[in-house]
From TrEMBL, chain A:
GO biological process: sulfur compound metabolic process
EC class (word): transferase
InterPro entries from the UniProt entry: CysN_GTP-bd, CysN_II, CysN_NoDQ_III, G_TR_CS, GTP-eEF1A_C, P-loop_NTPase, SO4_adenylTrfase_lsu, T_Tr_GTP-bd_dom
UniProt EC number: 2.7.7.4
Domain Tr-type G: residue ranges: 12-224
Species this protein is from: Streptomyces roseochromogenus subsp. oscitans DS 12.976
One MF annotation (Gene Ontology) recorded for this entry: GTPase activity
Keyword Magnesium in annotation: no
The protein's name in its UniProt record: sulfate adenylyltransferase
From TrEMBL, chain B:
This protein's encoding gene: cysD
This protein's record includes keyword Membrane: no
Record HAMAP family: Sulf_adenylyltr_sub2 (MF_00064)
Organism: Streptomyces roseochromogenus subsp. oscitans DS 12.976
Pathway(s) per entry: Sulfur metabolism; hydrogen sulfide biosynthesis; sulfite from sulfate: step 1/3
GO molecular function terms listed in the Swiss-Prot or TrEMBL record: ATP binding; sulfate adenylyltransferase (ATP) activity
Record keywords, A-Z: ATP-binding, Nucleotide-binding, Nucleotidyltransferase, Transferase
InterPro entries in the record: PAPS_reduct_dom, Rossmann-like_a/b/a_fold, SO4_adenylTrfase_ssu, Sulfate_adenylyltrnsfr_sub2
Identification of the protein by name: Sulfate adenylyltransferase subunit 2
UniProt function note: With CysN forms the ATP sulfurylase (ATPS) that catalyzes the adenylation of sulfate producing adenosine 5'-phosphosulfate (APS) and diphosphate, the first enzymatic step in sulfur assimilation pathway. APS synthesis involves the formation of a high-energy phosphoric-sulfuric acid anhydride bond driven by GTP hydrolysis by CysN coupled to ATP hydrolysis by CysD.
Segments of this protein annotated with the region Disordered: 1-21
Gene3D superfamilies cross-referenced by the UniProt entry: HUPs
Length: 439, 321
C-alpha cells in the first residue's frame, strides 16, 4: 500500500442511501441527529444552528436546521428538493440523498432512490403505516433499492412501548413482502431524544438490534454490479494523433456492470460485431482486469467502427430493439401524451422516440391500475410503450439498474420529462391489488 | 515536491486495483470518487461543443484539472482553462497557474475584474472585497467565448445551498441559477441539453468532501501552491481572520501587522481569504489537522459566506458559483 495508509487506517467503502418521510415524521431532525451524533457537525455549523434556534425562541438547538438549506424552505418549514449530505465513520463513508416526503414531490423521492443502495423509510410511531409510508415503500421497490430500513420515530411520544413498534413493523413487513422487497430491518428510534439513531437506547432495552447507524455501517455494499453481465457504454473515443501515440485508439467509458479482462471476446452493439480486448487502460495505467464502476479506456483488436453511444458487452448479448415497454415516473409539469416526440437517453446513447401508448397508471398506494389514462401527469407512475428511431441494446431494469434505465427529454427545450425503467415494475406477487392488505 | 501530474509511464499505483478485503470486487471510496468524476468529464467532452474548466489555482480546481488530465490520457485535455482574476490574487497562485498551463500546453482564458473596474463598469466595494464582483466578468466571458459547459470545483458538502446543486446545473444567459428550474438528475444519466445562450455548469467534485480532496492530493502526490502549507507570513487580524497585508486594502489604521506561522485552507481573493495558525507543513500534517478540526472549511476562512444566512443562495442566483 502507499501513502494513503498514513492518512487513513484502512480503505473505506461508500454507502449511498436515501431517506423518505415527511417533515411531520421528524425527518430533518433524524438526519440532523445522524449528523450530530456521528460527530459530523462542525463547530461553526452547530453555532449557526444554536444561534438561529435562539432567534426563533426555541430553547434547545433545532437539529432540523442543520439540513434545511434554502430560504423558501426555512420560511415554509418544508423541504423542497433533494439535498445531498456527507458524513463518515471510521469504516464507511455515507452519501445521503435527503428527499422530501410530500406527495407532490414523488419525483424527488424517485431521484434520490435511483442512486441509493439503501432507503430509510420513516414513520411516526403515533400514526403507524399511512398512505405516504406505502408510497415510499412502492417507490423503493419500483427503483429496486437493494435494502430498506423502517425507522419508527417519535417512540418517546408512545412511552417507548414495544407493542406499538412491533405492530407497525409487522404491518409494514407484510406490505413490503407483497412488493417483493427482501428483508426489511426495523428500528425504533427517537430522533429528538437520540434513542437508537447513533447511540443505543437505555429506554428500549426490549430492542436487541443495531442502532440505525450501526445498521448503515453493516449493510453490504457495491456487491452485485461486478457480478452481472458486462456492460461498457462507450463515452468518448481517445485518439491522441501525436508523434508519441500515432495510432492509439481507445474507447473511454465507465463499466456499468460486470468486468473486462484483456483477451475477452466482446460484442459491440448495436452493430453486433465481435472482437477481442487487447488492452485496458485504467486512467493512464495498463491493467489486466477492470470491473464496475471503474472508469477506463478499452483497446480492441480489430479496426471496427466504434463510437460514443455504442455498448460493449460480453457473454449473452441483449437484442437491440426499437419497441420499448417501461414503467415510468413522469417528472415534468407538462403532461406526457400519446404521440409526443421525445429524445430517449439510455447510457451514452440518445435517440429520437415517440410515445405510442400509455396503457395504464399505477395508484402508488394500492398498486391498482387505472387503464387508458388520458395523459401522464407530474409525479404519476405508469406504463409506457415507446418506438425509437434507432435500435437500443437494453436490459430490463430488474436485471440491471444501469442499462435498464433511461430518461425522456423534451427535444425543444431540453427539459428532463420522464424517468423510465425497462420492463415490468413488480414481481408477479405484487400484481394483485393490495387493498386487502391495507385495511 | 513532485510535478503537477506524474507523467512517468508505469507509475505503480497498486492501491488503485487492489480489491478491498471481502467478497467480490469493490472499490475504495477514493477510487469510486475518481471513477465518477472521470465519467462526468468524459460525458461533457462527448456531448458539448465548447467546454471550459474554471481554474482558480485553489486545491479543488487543481484536483479537477488532475482528474481531467487522467480522463483523456494519453491524449491532451480537449478544453481550456478559465481564470477569473480578481486583481487581488496571491502571487504564488498566479505563478502556479502559469506553470501548469505551460506544462500541459493548455489554453488559458482570463476574465479580469480589474479591467471592469478600470473601465468603470464595476465599482470597488467599501469593504474592499472583490469576490462578489467576479460574476459579471465571468458571465460575459462565457457569453463572448460561447462556452457551453463550464466545469466548477464546487462540492455539495461546502455549504447548505450547495447541498441541492446538481452535477449538471443549467444556467440562463445571465448565469442565473433557479433552484426550482433545475432538472431532476437520476441514476448517472446527465442531461446537458440547453438552448442557445444558455450553458451548463458542471461539478465533477460534487460528491467529494474536503477530506477526500486532501487524501486524493496525498495519494496522487499532486503539487499545490505553497500557501496551503505552514509558512511565516505578515498578517493582520480583521473580522476574526488573519489576512495578508497588501495593496488591496489592508491593514487599515489600528490593524497591527505581525509575523505568524500560518497556512491557508482555501485560496481566493486576498481581501477575504483568511489564514489559520498552523504548523502543518506537509500534506500528511494538513490532513491530520483537518481530521481533527472542528471548523468547516468556509466557516474558518471565508468572510463573504458569513454575510448572511442565505448569502450563498443569493449569489448563486446571480450566477456566482
Amino acid at each position: 500500500m502507499t501513502a494513503t495508509m498514513t492518512t487513513t487506517t484502512a480503505p473505506v467503502d461508500t454507502l449511498r442511501f436515501a431517506t423518505a418521510g415527511s417533515v411531520d415524521d421528524g425527518k430533518s431532525t433524524l438526519v440532523g441527529r445522524l449528523l450530530h451524533d456521528s460527530k459530523s457537525v462542525l463547530t461553526d455549523q452547530l453555532e449557526a444552528v444554536e444561534h438561529a434556534s435562539r432567534n426563533r425562541g426555541q430553547d434547545a438547538p433545532d437539529l432540523a436546521l442543520l439540513t434545511d438549506g434554502l430560504r423558501a424552505e426555512r420560511e415554509q418549514g418544508i423541504t423542497i428538493d433533494v439535498a445531498y449530505r456527507y458524513f463518515a465513520t471510521t469504516s464507511r463513508r455515507f452519501i445521503l440523498a435527503d428527499t422530501p416526503g410530500h406527495v407532490q414531490y414523488t419525483r424527488n423521492m424517485v431521484t434520490g432512490a435511483s442512486t441509493a443502495e439503501l432507503t430509510v423509510i420513516l414513520v411516526d410511531a403515533r400514526n403507524g403505516v399511512v398512505e405516504q409510508t406505502r408510497r415510499h415503500a412502492v417507490i423503493a421497490a419500483l427503483l429496486r433499492v437493494p435494502h430498506v430500513v423502517l425507522a419508527v420515530n417519535k417512540m418517546d411520544l408512545v412511552d417507548y412501548r414495544e407493542s406499538v413498534f412491533a405492530a407497525i413493523a409487522e404491518e409494514f413487513g407484510t406490505f413490503a413482502n407483497r412488493l417483493g422487497i427482501p428483508g426489511i430491518a426495523s428500528v425504533p428510534v427517537s430522533a429528538l431524544a437520540g434513542d437508537n439513531v447513533v447511540e443505543s437506547s437505555a429506554r428500549m432495552d426490549w430492542y436487541g438490534g443495531p442502532t440505525l447507524l450501526e445498521h448503515l455501517q453493516a449493510v453490504p455494499v457495491g456487491s452485485d454490479a461486478a457480478a452481472l453481465g458486462t456492460r461498457f457504454p462507450v463515452q468518448y473515443v481517445i485518439r491522441p494523433r501525436t508523434a508519441e501515440h500515432p495510432d492509439y485508439r481507445g474507447y473511454a467509458g465507465r463499466l456499468a456492470s460486470g468486468a473486462l479482462r484483456v483477451g475477452d471476446r466482446v460484442t459491440v452493439l448495436p452493430a453486433g460485431l465481435t472482437t477481442t480486448v487487447v488492452g485496458l487502460d485504467l486512467l493512464g495505467e495498463p491493467v489486466e482486469e477492470a470491473w464496475a464502476p471503474q472508469s477506463l479506456t478499452v483497446s480492441l483488436a480489430d479496426d471496427i467502427d466504434v463510437s460514443r453511444g455504442d455498448l460493449i458487452v460480453t457473454g449473452a448479448v441483449p437484442e437491440p430493439v426499437r419497441d420499448i415497454e417501461a414503467t415510468v415516473t413522469h417528472l415534468d409539469e407538462r403532461p406526457l401524451r400519446v404521440g409526443d416526440h421525445v429524445l430517449l437517453k439510455h447510457t451514452t446513447r440518445t435517440v429520437r422516440a415517440i410515445v405510442k401508448d400509455v396503457p395504464y397508471l399505477l395508484d402508488v398506494s394500492t398498486l391498482e391500475r387505472r387503464e387508458r389514462p388520458e395523459a401522464l401527469r407530474a409525479n404519476e407512475i405508469g406504463h409506457l410503450v415507446l418506438r425509437t428511431a434507432e435500435p437500443l441494446a437494453l436490459d430490463s431494469y430488474a436485471a440491471n439498474r444501469s442499462t435498464g434505465s433511461f430518461l425522456l427529454i423534451d427535444p425543444a427545450d431540453g427539459t428532463t420529462r420522464t424517468a423510465g425503467m425497462v420492463g415490468e415494475a413488480f414481481s408477479p406477487a405484487a400484481k394483485e391489488p393490495l387493498r386487502g392488505v391495507l385495511t | 515536491m513532485t510535478t503537477v501530474i506524474d507523467r512517468s509511464v508505469g507509475h505503480e499505483r497498486q492501491h488503485a486495483t487492489a480489491p478491498l478485503p471481502g467478497p467480490g470486487y469493490r472499490l475504495s471510496h477514493l477510487d469510486a470518487l475518481e471513477a465518477e468524476s472521470v465519467h462526468i468529464f468524459r460525458e461533457v467532452a462527448g456531448e458539448f461543443e465548447n467546454p471550459v474548466l474554471l481554474f482558480s489555482g485553489g486545491k479543488d480546481s487543481i484536483v479537477m484539472l488532475h482528474l481531467a488530465l487522467k480522463a483523456f490520457r494519453p491524449a491532451a485535455v480537449p478544453f481550456g482553462l478559465l481564470h477569473v482574476d480578481t486583481g487581488h490574487n496571491f502571487p504564488e497562485v498566479l505563478e502556479y497557474r502559469d506553470r501548469v498551463v505551460a506544462a500541459h500546453g493548455l489554453r488559458l482564458h482570463v476574465a479580469s475584474v480589474q479591467d471592469y473596474i478600470d473601465r468603470g463598469v464595476l465599482r470597488e466595494r467599501p469593504d474592499g472585497t472583490r469576490n462578489p464582483l467576479q460574476t459579471l466578468p465571468l458571465t460575459e466571458k462565457i457569453q463572448s467565448q460561447r462556452f457551453d459547459a463550464v466545469f466548477g470545483g464546487g462540492r455539495r458538502d461546502e455549504e447548505k445551498a450547495r447541498a441541492k446543486e446538481r452535477v449538471f446545473s443549467l444556467r440562463d444567459e445571465f448565469g442565473g441559477w433557479d433552484p426550482r428550474r433545475q432538472r431532476p438528475e437520476l441514476w448517472n444519466l446527465y442531461n446537458g441539453r440547453h438552448a442557445p445562450g444558455e450553458h451548463v455548469r458542471v461539478f465533477p467534485l460534487s460528491n467529494w468532501t474536503e477530506l477526500d480532496v486532501w487524501q486524493y492530493i496525498a495519494r496522487e502526490e499532486i503539487e499545490l501552491p505553497s500557501l496551503y502549507f505552514a509558512h511565516r507570513r505578515k498578517v493582520f487580524r480583521r473580522a476574526g481572520m488573519w489576512l495578508t497585508a497588501g495593496g488591496w486594502g489592508g491593514p487599515r489604521a489600528g490593524e497591527a501587522v505581525e509575523a505568524r506561522r500560518v497556512r491557508y485552507r482555501t485560496v481566493g481573493d486576498m481581501s477575504c481569504t483568511g489564514a489559520v495558525d498552523s504548523d502543518a507543513d506537509t500534506v500528511e500534517k494538513v490532513i491530520a489537522e483537518i481530521a481533527a478540526s472542528r471548523l468547516t472549511e468556509r466557516g474558518a476562512t471565508r468572510a463573504d459566506d458569513k454575510l448572511s444566512e442565505a448569502a450563498m443562495e443569493d449569489r448563486k442566483r446571480e450566477g456566482y458559483f
